[in-house]
């Protein structure tokens, strides 16, 4: 077995092991510092999505991370929602993803990026 084949099989094995044990997400609620969001949570069976919310209101920012059932708008990626409350703007950035610990600090690198990196190893 050559090295490229080994890397591919190892990747498949790791992916199957992580999905067999359920999704794991970072967790925190209304944290004022991202450093407070280092704990992880094993999501209940059937939960397929992690979330990362950033809420900015009246010059204060709060962070929430955890497991979330997938709703219509919760596809992989981020989007921003702006609303008004008591004549002040609320800016909420909502991010959703579907791989273990994907709701960490850097939500801009999707799990599919790893597949793209391994693509040159394949020989057709």
Structure in words:
The chain is an alpha+beta fold. It has a single domain, classed as Ribbon (CD59). 20% of the residues lie in helices and 38% in strands. Strands 2-5-4-7-6 form a 5-stranded antiparallel beta sheet, with no helix packed on it. A hairpin with a 2-residue loop joins β4 and β5. About 15% of the residues have low confidence. Keywords: Signal. It comes from Lepeophtheirus salmonis (Salmon louse). This is (salmon louse) hypothetical protein. InterPro entries: CD59_antigen_CS, Snake_toxin-like_sf.
Strand content: 35-45%
Kindly provide the radius of gyration, computed on alpha-carbon positions and rounded to a whole number of angstroms. 18 Å
The termini sit apart by 16 Å
Output the CATH homologous superfamily: CD59
- Helix/strand-derived class? alpha+beta
Largest sheet: 5 strands, antiparallel
Helix proportion range: 10-25%
The CATH class is Mainly Beta
Rounded mean pLDDT is: 78
Total domain units: 1
Q: From the coordinates shown, what is the CATH architecture? A: Ribbon
Uncertain runs are: 13-19, 108-119
Q: How do the helices and strands follow one another from N- to C-terminus? A: HEEEEEEEH
Which of globular, elongated, flat, extended, rod-shaped describes the shape? Answer: elongated
What CATH calls the topology is: CD59
Helix segment tally = 2
How is the largest sheet built, in terms of strand order?
2-5-4-7-6
Strand tally is: 7
């Amino acid at each position: 077995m050559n090295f490229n084949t080994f890397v591919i099989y190892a990747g498949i094995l790791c992916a199957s092991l992580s999905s067999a044990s359920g999704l794991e997400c970072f967790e925190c609620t209304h944290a004022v510092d991202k450093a407070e969001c280092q704990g992880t949570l094993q999501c209940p069976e059937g939960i397929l999505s992690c979330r990362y919310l950033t809420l900015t209101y009246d010059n204060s920012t709060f962070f929430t991370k955890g497991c979330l059932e997938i709703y219509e708008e919760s596809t992989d990626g981020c989007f921003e929602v702006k609303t008004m409350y008591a004549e002040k703007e609320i800016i909420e950035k909502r991010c959703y993803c579907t791989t273990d610990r994907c709701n960490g600090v850097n939500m801009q690198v999707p799990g599919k990026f790893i597949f793209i990196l391994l693509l040159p190893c394949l020989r057709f």
